Amino acid sequence: MKFNLLLLLFLVINGFLWGQTDSEIRQIRYSAANDELVYISEMAPFYHGVASGDPTHNSVILWTRITPTHKAAQLNVIFEVATDISFSNIISRGSLNTNAEKDFTVKFDQQGLQPNSFYYYRFIHNTDTSIVGRTKTMPIDDAENIRFGVVSCSNFQAGHFNAYRFASQRTDLDFILHLGDYIYEYGEGGYGYNEDTQRGHEPDHEMVTLEDYRLRHSFYHLDPDLRRAHQLFPWITTWDDHESTNDSYKDGAQNHTDSTEGDWEIRKNAAAKAYSEWMPIRNPDPINPVKIWRAFDYGNLMDLIMIDTRIWGRDKQVRSTNDENYGDPERTILGKDQLSWFKDRLSRSNSQWKIIGNQVQIMLVQTGPNQPFNLDPWDGYPAERDTVLRFIRDNEIDNVVFLTGDIHTTWAADLALDPFNTKSSLNPDGYTALTQDGAIATEFVTPSVTSDNLNEILGAPAGSSTGLEAALMQTNPQIKYIELDDHGLMIFDVNKDRAQAQWYVGEILERDTTPELLTAYKTDSESNRISPALLELFEDDEKTPENPEEIKKKYRTDIGTKEIGVVFNAFPNPCNDFVRIQFGIEKAIKGEIYLIDAQGKTIIKEALKSFNSGVYEYTLNTSQLKSGIYFFQLKSRIGNLSYQIVKS
């Protein structure tokens, strides 16, 4: 809910337009000092890389996006899956079609794989091949351990994705779990703007339409550290609010106004459609992308149950505990159907550990007697939280662990019905702090990848929150650890003896920094309570085989004029009043922007400008154009860039 927006460097180009005005171009700058190449011609036409997700014991979702070089009705892509990095043993090959209805993304469910095995995959279009991705299936029988990275709250504008980079450098992870806020909806200069990061957002305004959400996903996928983490590991993801908009719920959102932003259902469905297109997720209901709650059975060791506390069934948040609806037993954060499914999954699980992928904190956190810390998470839905915790306790379901994001900070806590009063025969719902008697389950919270934590919100140096951390732990005896000032990720390791979290934190204003180990906590099997763990209890074991190359170097023979860049997206196209063109330039040039009609007549010619390497957004007012076909062109002495635009 709190986020840091980054620096957007932009240029306004004062060109001239015969018959109309109001065109604008801006560069979304990555840090040149850190050599963050977001547009790499060798990756054509698969500039957004590859990804895999939702692995089971015999299947995995495989994903890519092909960037068309012109306005195409349909494109064909070949996929190959092999057991080795050289593709000498290809076990699956086929072709798929994609089109503008899917934003030219390609996603399919590769079946028939072997359990607990690594695979390599790639995509081919004409003579061009994508980078090679590596993925892994999950075990079907006994497993010694499962280890995965846990991340959330990755605001591009707030800083560098060093947590993703750190995960990519590890060789011991089975998958990456993202607990929401994968993208952020805010536009240029919005909440949390950070001038210290030479990064930007595109589009430059808040996401509202399907085109907006697609452009933002496209932009995030160009980040080299995010792209690399997707390339090397399967991901399991859920959304929180910022994939749609702040503090969203089933029927609306705090950051949505119907009168100025349109119907909420249209916006919600647009956000869900773009998410389904751009993320390697297996949708439980193919015709309803809003439904993403699902579960994974990883043998006898672990079940992973992914719930949706944000969009599916959530009632509107209350602003105060004095609200008459606050304690209403009918209020829900899950929805009745999802709650029933969740309880059924818990009761039927035959796995030792029941791990819950949960967006918002379920632990009860108070700043004083009957004063919840935050009413957006489960604290704002106390009746349903009690229902869940009582179900776990009354059915004697051990080893339930909630993994949570959202709050941008690090926490470890016991879950109890009444943690503020001692457990006794007169108060069976109580909790005894010294012995931890009354603990029902546990919760581990991962910090943000980049989104602002407490010291940044206050404008204070790191370490300034120690007093508040101590006060919160004193007021809330069930909380065993809090750290409010650092960014990073959690590495979570599950074996037959315990489930353990280790947190790694580091800087976000510079790229390539290596996160440091912060602390470690665990829950021993059948204890249902939190305890400190030995630091470095598990090392970076070499589980994974050879890494595929990050960038596939190749030489291309282009016919005709050399192209100096690529158009990633143009929305809306066909257009009415405007079109927004997202394009990349590989090397610094001086060039002129033209708009040419189908007869070759120049409609727009902008003044000569300098373009550094990077990603640009060009917004063109097309309201006065006649209906027909036009060509956006960027011309320079060393080559040209061209893309077809249609005016309705």
UniProtKB/TrEMBL annotation:
Query: What SUPFAM superfamilies does the record tag this protein with?
Result: Metallo-dependent phosphatases
Q: Recite the UniProt keywords alphabetically.
A: Signal
Ranges for domain Phospholipase D N-terminal: 48-137
Which residues belong to any copy of the Secretion system C-terminal sorting domain? Answer: 571-640
> Domain named PhoD-like phosphatase metallophosphatase: which ranges?
148-503
Q: Which Gene3D superfamilies match?
A: PhoD-like phosphatase, Purple acid phosphatase-like, N-terminal
Keyword field contains Signal: yes
Pfam families xrefs: PhoD, PhoD_N, Por_Secre_tail
What protein am I looking at?
T9SS type A sorting domain-containing protein
List the top taxonomic levels of the source.
Bacteria, Pseudomonadati, Bacteroidota, Flavobacteriia, Flavobacteriales
